[in-house]
Amino acid sequence: xxxxxxxxxxxxxxxxxxxxxxxxxxxxxxxxxxxxxxxxxxxxxxxxxxxxxxxxxxxxxxxxxxxxxxxxxxxxxxxxxxxxxxxxxxxxxxxxxxxxxxxxxxxxxxxxxxxxxxxxxxxxxxxxxxxxxxxxxxxxxxxxxxxxxxxxxxxxxxxxxxxxxxxxxxxxxxxxxxxxxxxxxxxxxxxxxxxxxxxxxxxxxxxxxxxxxxxxxxxxxxxxxxxxxxxxxxxxxxxxxxxxxxxxxxxxxxxxxxxxxxxxxxxxxxxxxxxxxxxxxxxxxxxxxxxxxxxxxxxxxxxxxxxxxx
Length: 310
Known about the structure:
This protein has one domain. The protein is α+β, with helices and mostly antiparallel strands. α1 packs across α7 (223-235) and α2 (82-93) packs across α3 (119-131). It is built from eight helices and 16 strands. The radius of gyration is 24 Å and the shape is flat. Strands 1, 4, 9, 10, 11, 12, 13 and 16 form an eight-stranded antiparallel β-sheet that branches. It has a two-stranded antiparallel ribbon with strand order 2-3.
């Protein structure tokens, strides 16, 4: 069933004694806005949580109880080779890939590259949307080598930003073992490995999301996909535990449903109805209970309905 409404949503989650999104360019420190000190979690990291949840719960293609279960494969998955994924579309559609010789600057023939062309690319693009949940949800650039075109996804997420500045703590940790005999010899049998771990004592984060019904029509993103997206947002942290991430949990998913596809109010005006403030008397917040989360549900713009999903 195709989407008949525009949706804007607010994803509120928190972290306790964990690193919600390490920055590999900064020694895996929690990401921070350098000017304000607010914590950040990238949209890519949030999408990864959703992809992993869908892969865990729905991407069972070999033992799918129904043929349409193949709709829930994940395109951008760990250790995937994307051009091999693209080739599957051509193989499934029975389209032979063209072989074009690439010319270098001197006009000499170089290595051959596989590509698709014309109507074949559009057919491959549709096949990818039909079979991969994340392609028809978030979009993808699939024109690298084996050309399956580009998809602009109907669901877009912003960076998540903490409500207040965070403190990134660094801890020394010890492993009571070493990796090699050479290391053991240097330590004369002590056999310890020192390391570092970064955590945020507590942070409450907010991300914004947008669902376009018009783009959903182009990719085939439907009502079932939307409900699966909401389920992934509400439950993904419960199945993404690790020592590095500490305690993370979705605290609220607040959805503004528009009566029309075009929308009945600007997203920013709806997001501004949600106010999060530290409670009076709380000097150092360490739990979601230390904040007041207020939602102004009065006098919503005509044609807009508010839903609290978790």
